[in-house]
Amino acid sequence: MPQLGETVTEGTITRWAKQVGDQIAEDEVLFEVSTDKVDSEVPSPVAGVVSEILVPEGETVDVGTRLAVISDGGEAPAAPAAAQADEGTAPAPEPPVAEAAPASASAAPAADVATPNGSAVVAPPGTGQPAPEPSTPAPVQQEQREAASGSEDGAPGRVLSPVVRRLIAEHNLDPNQIPGTGAGGRITRSDVLSVIDRRNGGAAPAAAPSAPAAKGAPAAPTPAPAAGGVAPVQAFGPAQAGERDEIVPFTNIRRRTAEHMIRSKHTSAHTMVAVEVDYFGVEKARSAAKAAFREAEGFGLTYLPFITRAVVDALEDFPHVNSSVGEDSLIVHRDVNIGIAVDLDFGGLLVPVIHQADGKRLRALARDISGLAAKARSKRLTMDDISDGTFTITNAGPFGTFITVPVINQPQVAILSTDGVKKRPVVVEMPDGSDGIAVHPVGNLVMSWDHRAFDGAYAAAFVRAIKDILETRDWSAEL
After folding, report:
1. Is 270 annotated in the active site?
2. 131 vs 1: CA distance, rounded Å
3. Which of these, 345, 346, 367, 62, lies nearest to 354 by C-alpha position?
4. Which of 41, 92, 182, 250 would you call most buried, defined as having the most Cβ atoms within 10 angstroms of its Cβ?
């Protein structure tokens, strides 16, 4: 399992492109992997015949785990146990019998399969474990160091990955009460999720009058009214399914997205501001150039590159929007790296990043937006493509939305939503100075921002600057 990012500690096999007995060329796609950072196609490092597949589709394993064996075609497939016994990435020295454990021992349940789409989740900074060469004892030394100082995860002598440690902290679990199924008794992500599922399964069902209670489930107690006739707040467990309800298990992407969204809402003081933009000048330039633009570039010219260009220029005057919150400080980023959220046929989101966007004009930004979206949908994004974003734009406009309030993409402090553009009557100033009514394309821009980073006046002035740029710039000259 390759390490597809500094903080990535595990991955889920979503698809094997080759099966046992298939020929494979060097650099030909061998499998697809889903991590909390990106979905990727992984090429084969050598040419040969796939003689073994050690980890089936849908299972989640640690970075460095052996996934398959490729032979030169003349060798008999090695026994799985022997292959595992030779594995040099065991997390700690084990007796020979223990070393022969299958690589899937730390895998997530089959229901935890990632869809072949990506995720807009951006994990918080953590300490990822690098994928070593089989002969390198670094993982053993790392785990020995962590075991010696294991008090940080609440379980002295136990080694927990950053993902496992975060899940335990978020759900207030005691790691000493969680049986580990990983190598050497290590607690895996699936171990923690199993405990969470068991605990949630015993919680009281939500008091929804229209939802029938699950058979055999005890009725939720009715809280006694407090003084003044007001009932105390009741803690609700997960909703219970009725007989006619369909249960759709969360995929890896859905679960990780949910974790990131909840973490973002708990981290940032979310506030929003919106402005209405008259796109008459943008549309005039776009309509005149769109046929020649498509012929020259091979893709259509949308409103998004114009908005991105305006955001980049506005950030120059409002640098605190391009920042992250540190410990009792604001970290203002000098690089302007704009993330563009890309929908993958309703199966997930990815946020590829236009790096050094402040050095690019409209046409270059349009090329980057189109190219990154194509790479996202064809699963060709690399870690560099999705790393180091400093400000994000999400575009719900094609669906005709009126106002969309997005969730901040941590650790950034702001995210802008572009909503639908429609023709509306607007008041315009006539050549003689009088007022008149005209029909112009109009749409809203909505920004969610972290109130810890700056105040409402600063946020309002920033979106007003974007509006002014869009409405007053000579876009025909720029094209």
Report:
1. no
2. 8
3. 367
4. 182
Rounded CA-CA distance 115/97 in Å is 35
Q: Which candidate, 285, 325, 320, 319, places its Cα nearest to that of 305?
A: 285
Which of 27, 197, 451, 474 is flagged as catalytic?
451
- Asked if 408 and 268 count as a contact pair (C-beta separation under 8 A), the reply is yes
Q: Where are the beta strands (DSSP E) in 87-157?
A: none
Specify the pTM: 0.61
Q: Which residue has the tokens 């809280």?
A: 223
Residue 443: phi and psi, rounded to 5, are -155, 165
Q: How far is CA 413 from CA 18, 221, 330, 369, in A?
A: 43, 42, 10, 22
Return mean pLDDT, the chain. 77
Q: Which pLDDT band, with edges at 50, 70 and 90, does 458 fall under?
A: very high
Q: Is 440 noted as a catalytic residue in this protein?
A: no
- How far apart CA 63 and CA 2 sit, in angstroms, is 6
Question: What local confidence, expressed as pLDDT, does residue 116 receive?
Answer: 33
Provide the 10 A C-beta neighbour count for residue 103. 23
Round to the nearest angstrom and report the end-to-end CA distance of the chain.
Answer: 45
Strand ranges in 247-340 using DSSP code E only, listed in sequence order = 270-278, 323-326, 329-332, 338-340
Cα dist from 153 to 108, 158, 172, 195, 236, whole Å: 21, 8, 12, 17, 28
Strand partners, 11: 61
- In sequence order, the 6+-apart residues with CB closer than 8 A to the CB of 42 are 2, 29, 30, 31, 32, 33
pLDDT in tens, 206-249: 333 333 333 334 444 444 444 444 444 455 667 888 889 998 88
pLDDT at residue number 205: 36
Q: Quote the radius of gyration of the chain (alpha carbons, Å).
A: 26
CB 391 within 8 A of CB 414: yes
Q: Is the peptide bond before 411 cis (omega within 30 degrees of 0)?
A: yes
pLDDT band at 345 (very low <50, low <70, confident <90, very high): confident
Lowest mean pLDDT among 48-52, 194-198, 416-420: 194-198
From the list 358, 450, 455, 474, the catalytic residue is: 455
Is the pLDDT score of 108 beyond 90? Answer: no
